[in-house]
């Protein structure tokens, strides 16, 4: 299990793409990504950021 914490993205989730966040490639359902300070509607999150 891994825990990643980032600050407010201000709606710009590009820092979470594999190009910038290399660890994303190895994330599993056991891992956590905590984004502090953001409030967004769930319908705006691109499906590419939803880990299934």
Automatic annotation (TrEMBL):
Pfam families: Metallophos (PF00149). It comes from the Bacteria. Residues 1-50 form the Calcineurin-like phosphoesterase domain. GO terms for molecular function: hydrolase activity. InterPro entries: Calcineurin-like_PHP, Metallo-depent_PP-like. This is Calcineurin-like phosphoesterase domain-containing protein.
């Amino acid at each position: 299990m891994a825990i990643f914490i980032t600050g407010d993205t201000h709606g710009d989730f590009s820092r979470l793409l594999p190009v910038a966040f290399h660890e994303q490639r190895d994330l599993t359902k056991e891992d956590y990504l905590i984004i502090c300070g953001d409030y967004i509607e769930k319908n705006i999150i691109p499906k590419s950021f939803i880990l299934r």
